[in-house]
Amino acid sequence: MGKRIVLADPRGFCAGVDRAILTVQTILKASGGPRKDGLPPVYVRRQIVHNRHVVDDLAAQGAVFVQELSEVPDAAAAAGIPIVFSAHGVTPGVKAEAAARGMHVVDATCPLVSKVHREVLRFVREGYEIIYIGHRGHDEAVGVVGESPEHVHLIEHAADVESLDFRPDQPLVLLTQTTLSIDETAGTIAALKARFPWLKEPPSSDICYATSNRQAAVKLIAQQSDCVVIVGSANSSNSVRLMEVAQEALGDRGLAHRVDDAGEMDPTWFDGVDAVGVSSGASVPDELVAGVIEALRGRGFTEVSTVETIKENMHFVLPSELRRQPSRA
């Protein structure tokens, strides 16, 4: 056989990412072009999803991205310009700030992330302390912890378990960031259960279906490849986890790499390689994967096969706020 590409399926956009991007696109389409007052058609707080190509594309269409709500002028709030919250969710403080300024909020938080927010509130009401496995500083983790900072204790690794101290009569429950690797959290969860045997787990795993599906597919393509390329941005937790899962499955046979696009690939990665596995994170447009495949074809990887693990049919409806169209100036 010649040099080949082993493509993972599922890969790329998940339902939550698709919903978030479509939210901004819907507002842009409904805006009807430039406003007379010079204000943009929509503001987006933080990156709508963690992919710079997606953000750049929406910005080129007229969306204005801000880090904080304070960057949105009062005139925009008064004019009812929509402010979209990203797929990763926000803290109650951000929602309160938007409400205090009378902003027209469209919340594009992934429904699976919103579920974890609701779980925090429910368990706090029931008297639990919450141990949350997540990445410190990640937008999703910041939002979840912000629901009840005094009762949500964030840890990243098994080594962090020693820093926790709870009485045996203190109800404890475990929650996790949705984009983590199942394998990555296994050791931490084992350490937690060893230290706190009474720790309760939520009824279903918080690691989302898309994260699990993409990791399962990547493991399979890595077993058939000499190296793996994951398309995704450096600040995309699920993309970085995919690279780590791929590397673990490759073992000593080869290396896994993460790139934003084909332009970041190093030709030396493919020296002596007969099969390259390719996948992408949940916030990555498929045209970026197509670009990687095209670049690999140019290096002699002309055969393409696909490994499909499961057919995804999840779909989330657009945020209810979009039913109330903002008035135009």
Automatic annotation (TrEMBL):
<keyword id="KW-0004">4Fe-4S</keyword>
<feature type="active site" description="Proton donor">
    <location>
        <position position="140"/>
    </location>
</feature>
<feature type="binding site">
    <location>
        <position position="14"/>
    </location>
    <ligand>
        <name>[4Fe-4S] cluster</name>
    </ligand>
</feature>
<comment type="function">
    <text>Catalyzes the conversion of 1-hydroxy-2-methyl-2-(E)-butenyl 4-diphosphate (HMBPP) into a mixture of isopentenyl diphosphate (IPP) and dimethylallyl diphosphate (DMAPP). Acts in the terminal step of the DOXP/MEP pathway for isoprenoid precursor biosynthesis.</text>
</comment>
<feature type="binding site">
    <location>
        <position position="283"/>
    </location>
    <ligand>
        <name>isopentenyl diphosphate</name>
    </ligand>
</feature>
<feature type="binding site">
    <location>
        <position position="283"/>
    </location>
    <ligand>
        <name>(2E)-4-hydroxy-3-methylbut-2-enyl diphosphate</name>
    </ligand>
</feature>
<feature type="binding site">
    <location>
        <position position="110"/>
    </location>
    <ligand>
        <name>[4Fe-4S] cluster</name>
    </ligand>
</feature>
<feature type="binding site">
    <location>
        <position position="138"/>
    </location>
    <ligand>
        <name>(2E)-4-hydroxy-3-methylbut-2-enyl diphosphate</name>
    </ligand>
</feature>
<feature type="binding site">
    <location>
        <position position="50"/>
    </location>
    <ligand>
        <name>dimethylallyl diphosphate</name>
    </ligand>
</feature>
<keyword id="KW-0414">Isoprene biosynthesis</keyword>
<comment type="similarity">
    <text>Belongs to the IspH family.</text>
</comment>
<feature type="binding site">
    <location>
        <position position="237"/>
    </location>
    <ligand>
        <name>isopentenyl diphosphate</name>
    </ligand>
</feature>
<dbReference type="Pfam" id="PF02401">
    <property type="entry name" value="LYTB"/>
</dbReference>
<feature type="binding site">
    <location>
        <position position="237"/>
    </location>
    <ligand>
        <name>dimethylallyl diphosphate</name>
    </ligand>
</feature>
<feature type="binding site">
    <location>
        <position position="138"/>
    </location>
    <ligand>
        <name>isopentenyl diphosphate</name>
    </ligand>
</feature>
<feature type="binding site">
    <location>
        <position position="237"/>
    </location>
    <ligand>
        <name>(2E)-4-hydroxy-3-methylbut-2-enyl diphosphate</name>
    </ligand>
</feature>
<feature type="binding site">
    <location>
        <position position="238"/>
    </location>
    <ligand>
        <name>(2E)-4-hydroxy-3-methylbut-2-enyl diphosphate</name>
    </ligand>
</feature>
<feature type="binding site">
    <location>
        <position position="178"/>
    </location>
    <ligand>
        <name>(2E)-4-hydroxy-3-methylbut-2-enyl diphosphate</name>
    </ligand>
</feature>
<comment type="pathway">
    <text>Isoprenoid biosynthesis; dimethylallyl diphosphate biosynthesis; dimethylallyl diphosphate from (2E)-4-hydroxy-3-methylbutenyl diphosphate: step 1/1.</text>
</comment>
<feature type="binding site">
    <location>
        <position position="88"/>
    </location>
    <ligand>
        <name>(2E)-4-hydroxy-3-methylbut-2-enyl diphosphate</name>
    </ligand>
</feature>
<feature type="binding site">
    <location>
        <position position="88"/>
    </location>
    <ligand>
        <name>dimethylallyl diphosphate</name>
    </ligand>
</feature>
<dbReference type="InterPro" id="IPR003451">
    <property type="entry name" value="LytB/IspH"/>
</dbReference>
<feature type="binding site">
    <location>
        <position position="236"/>
    </location>
    <ligand>
        <name>isopentenyl diphosphate</name>
    </ligand>
</feature>
<feature type="binding site">
    <location>
        <position position="283"/>
    </location>
    <ligand>
        <name>dimethylallyl diphosphate</name>
    </ligand>
</feature>
<keyword id="KW-0560">Oxidoreductase</keyword>
<feature type="binding site">
    <location>
        <position position="238"/>
    </location>
    <ligand>
        <name>dimethylallyl diphosphate</name>
    </ligand>
</feature>
<feature type="binding site">
    <location>
        <position position="208"/>
    </location>
    <ligand>
        <name>[4Fe-4S] cluster</name>
    </ligand>
</feature>
<dbReference type="GO" id="GO:0051745">
    <property type="term" value="F:4-hydroxy-3-methylbut-2-enyl diphosphate reductase activity"/>
</dbReference>
<keyword id="KW-0479">Metal-binding</keyword>
<dbReference type="GO" id="GO:0019288">
    <property type="term" value="P:isopentenyl diphosphate biosynthetic process, methylerythritol 4-phosphate pathway"/>
</dbReference>
<dbReference type="GO" id="GO:0051539">
    <property type="term" value="F:4 iron, 4 sulfur cluster binding"/>
</dbReference>
<dbReference type="GO" id="GO:0016114">
    <property type="term" value="P:terpenoid biosynthetic process"/>
</dbReference>
<dbReference type="GO" id="GO:0050992">
    <property type="term" value="P:dimethylallyl diphosphate biosynthetic process"/>
</dbReference>
<dbReference type="GO" id="GO:0046872">
    <property type="term" value="F:metal ion binding"/>
</dbReference>
<feature type="binding site">
    <location>
        <position position="236"/>
    </location>
    <ligand>
        <name>(2E)-4-hydroxy-3-methylbut-2-enyl diphosphate</name>
    </ligand>
</feature>
<feature type="binding site">
    <location>
        <position position="238"/>
    </location>
    <ligand>
        <name>isopentenyl diphosphate</name>
    </ligand>
</feature>
<feature type="binding site">
    <location>
        <position position="88"/>
    </location>
    <ligand>
        <name>isopentenyl diphosphate</name>
    </ligand>
</feature>
<feature type="binding site">
    <location>
        <position position="236"/>
    </location>
    <ligand>
        <name>dimethylallyl diphosphate</name>
    </ligand>
</feature>
<keyword id="KW-0408">Iron</keyword>
<protein>
    <recommendedName>
        <fullName>4-hydroxy-3-methylbut-2-enyl diphosphate reductase</fullName>
        <ecNumber>1.17.7.4</ecNumber>
    </recommendedName>
</protein>
<feature type="binding site">
    <location>
        <position position="50"/>
    </location>
    <ligand>
        <name>(2E)-4-hydroxy-3-methylbut-2-enyl diphosphate</name>
    </ligand>
</feature>
<comment type="pathway">
    <text>Isoprenoid biosynthesis; isopentenyl diphosphate biosynthesis via DXP pathway; isopentenyl diphosphate from 1-deoxy-D-xylulose 5-phosphate: step 6/6.</text>
</comment>
